[in-house]
Design a protein that fits this description.
Elements lengths: L3 H13 L3 H7 L6 H7 L6 H11 L3 H5 L3 E9 L15 E4 L8 E7 L12 E5 L13 E6 L4 E9 L2 E5 L6 E3 L2 E11 L2
Parallel strand pairs: 1-3
Antiparallel strand pairs: 1-2, 3-4, 4-9, 5-6, 5-9, 6-7, 7-8
């Protein structure tokens, strides 16, 4: 089960000035139930989450809907790549992909040089990090920050000491160094 429900439930209790014990009792559960699921990682049952949602007068679907990650900008899959850091995003939110972490973010693809892998309009998820590429990234589709500030989505390759950023329909970009790289974790088609 997605853990985003914990954050939503905690925020709702805070907004309404309710304590966990009162909500537990009000939902007809043991007085420590809400504390146990929020603070002690006890896995809740669907029926119990439904009881909590009913007591709080919120739709069950709102409580358990997928959490969201920020769309931090656009990334070009073509010749005129743009850096999402330069005055972009966050623009919107996108539903979290499976296995999202606290550092997971998304970008929207613009362009067609990665056709068949990351198409124009697709939402690409990755864990935001500012680390140099590692050997395990070679041969993988990555979001890559270049030293000149551009951010691209390419297949990361290495040859003769240079980084080769491979496209499916355009000439590769060859650079001596990259600022950072992050493997693509998930792609949501447009």
């Amino acid at each position: 089960m997605d853990i985003g429900w914990k954050t939503r439930l905690e925020q709702l209790l805070k907004e309404r000035g309710l304590d966990m014990k009162a909500v537990s009792k009000g939902a007809g559960l043991g007085e420590t139930y809400v504390r146990d699921i929020l603070k002690r990682d006890r896995e809740p049952g669907i029926d119990r989450l439904q009881a909590i949602a009913a007591y709080l007068s919120v739709p069950f679907s709102w409580l358990v809907s997928p959490s969201f990650v920020p769309i931090v900008g656009f990334v070009r899959a073509g010749a005129d790549e743009v850096a999402y850091e330069n005055g972009q995003g966050p623009f919107d939110m996108a539903p979290s992909p499976p296995n999202a972490t606290e550092s997971t973010v998304a970008v929207v693809v613009r362009g067609g040089s990665m056709a068949g892998r990351a198409d124009d309009g697709d939402v690409v998820y990755f864990d935001r990090r500012e680390r140099a590429p590692t050997e395990d990234m070679i041969g993988r589709l990555c979001v890559i920050g270049l030293l000149d500030g551009r951010v691209v989505i390419k297949k990361l390759l290495r040859t003769d000491g240079a980084w080769v950023l491979h496209s499916t329909t355009a000439d590769p970009i060859v650079v001596d160094a990259v600022a950072w790289a992050a493997p693509v974790a998930w792609i949501k088609p447009r």
